[in-house]
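Reopening this one. Same input as before:
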Amino acid sequence: MAVTPEQIGLCGCWQVIAVRREREELDPRSEGPSNEIGYYATSLATQELSDHELMEVIRGHWSAIENGVHHRRDVSFGEDACRIAHRTGAHALATLRNLAIGLYELQCAKGRVEAKGCKSWRRRMTVAGALNLLRS
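Same output, byte for byte:
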């Protein structure tokens, strides 16, 4: 069903795009592939990019996330090796990892990091030190 961005409360957008993905779990006990629908909103007019070009933009967005933030969380904090299965616990750990990366980036921007990277910085960080950073 076609809708306008205004009809769904996204004034200022020109297009809403629905992308169907087939997702396959790596767990052999899973019930097989599942379909997911992702929705994207853009201020690009319909004639600015072809459907193929829009898909490339969407893939590029996710590629940057996977290769940027996720890669960083995995390398610095071993996120992929973490076996916390409960959704609330996994969400809490992801939030703490993001907080730590944010603190690291703020310290880098202020020129206060002597470590060669986030991984070595976090090894030196204590809870008291992190709390002091949050207060400053």
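So the earlier flakiness isn't reproducible anymore. For the record, The chain has two domains: 1-54, 73-136.
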